[in-house]
């Protein structure tokens, strides 16, 4: 709501003074929603994405993504992949990140079916039952691959320089799964409360936004069925400031 404690005086008919008091009025709310801090949101798939820099092998990366209610990223269409390639990921100079390019574990595996003069095989989505339909083209084989392994793991390489990034240039690598690399996690969009906590489906919460007195239900990652509490202004205080994080909490600014 919006408080305005000023009274306005207008002259009515007959010279009487008419007093208009502006009281609490419910206002439309814009939610800052869907992804926790550090994640990038893509409306096309209602998903959130995050790059993890702590170099891990493929299997450890899988577990890290699962701990944040996600999985290693797979892609449903070219548009989603272009969104990923265009992002300016917040990367630092680390052992696992080259200055001009970036390689991340993603959620595909390359199954080798023939090891004759050239390696033959096919890509699979790493998680059975996934609804993802996009499969990468033929890969570049990484130098660390083992002659004994018949399953290699996918790395997506994209570029640091803005010109290359915005043109969508990228490469796919099939690499030894036990090599350490940065990785890209993907999760469904979610509800995030005003204190940046993740909210489970069906629970009440106060969304991130401008009104700490709003209570909503989390439904499909969106705040729905919202109810607002309207606060009385603090007594005995002419000038005050509302707390942006706590409902009906004020700081008096009077001398």
Automatic annotation (TrEMBL):
CDD domains per record: CLECT_DGCR2_like (cd03599)
InterPro entries in the cross-refs: C-type_lectin-like, C-type_lectin-like/link_sf, CTDL_fold, DGCR2-like_CTLD, IDD, VWF_dom
Domain C-type lectin: 44-186
Lineage of origin: Eukaryota, Metazoa, Chordata, Craniata, Vertebrata
Family annotation (SMART domains): CLECT, VWC
Protein name: IDD protein
PANTHER family: INTEGRAL MEMBRANE PROTEIN DGCR2/IDD, INTEGRAL MEMBRANE PROTEIN DGCR2_IDD
Superkingdom of the source species: Eukaryota
GO cellular component: membrane
